[in-house]
Design goal:
hydrolase, 2 domains, three-stranded antiparallel β-sheet, 9 strands, HNH_nuc, DNA-SBD_ScoMcrA, endonuclease, alpha+beta, elongated
Amino acid sequence: MEWLERVAELRQWSRHGVRAPHKPLLLLYALGRFRQDEDELKYSAVEGELKRLLAEYGPTRPTTPAYPFHHLVNDGVWEVRSELGDESPGSGVRLLRESGATGRLAPSLQGELRRRPELLWQLVQLILERHFPPSLHGELCEAVGLEEAFSPARYSFGRRQQRDPRMRELVLAAYGHQCAFCGYDGKLGGKPVGLEAAHVRWWAFEGPDSVDNGLCLCSLHHKLFDKGVLGFDAGYRILVSPVFSGGTAAAEAQVTGLAGRSLIGPRVGERAVAAGYREWHVEQVFRTAA
């Protein structure tokens, strides 16, 4: 269990639920490249791809892949060498580029991955569960070349608590089985279809399975909410990220045209989203202009 424990305990800068998934994203990327038989990653060659991953799945504030490329060494799962020697030259972008810095999974980890192929999928599942909401798992695996990893949970390790299986039912009922953004209320055989319970503050970041941390959303708006395209303000009015663009009538109707509208629900007597959870989402997920 040593490698699972090390990955579960990746040291990240953290304060009051601030997202800092730099190391998990780099490790997912490295696992994907390892599976494609690419053992060593030159910083100057992968910097662009890592930047795109951080821009799409990382924190809302500006950031650089140089930080995890250097600091992941301290967790015992990653090594960096350069023309200057067998150690990382530091976290400076220019220095990593000019020194020809190359990173790789620790040789002992590579050996274990070759001996036990299932370990790779266990590590992937662990990283996804601890750092990202379920709505993003599939596309994130695809982005790093690990499509097969996205399947019903293969492994669960060191979870802080059991998920409450009643959350979806309770949240959907609280919102009258309607999407809080668009009002969609589809049913199949009398049962809701295409509706999901979205965590406002992600479960991976201490967000509880409770009605006051949930929204009933259709599948489309759940994904956009978790990607930071949509949010809502203290008056429960819908926010649309200024970074989002769409030129069709469908994009206008489903996204940009929602700006300023009031959330639908919850029903009278049900708990609205707590202010602290809404503030976390606005600060850590919603995409503001650069």
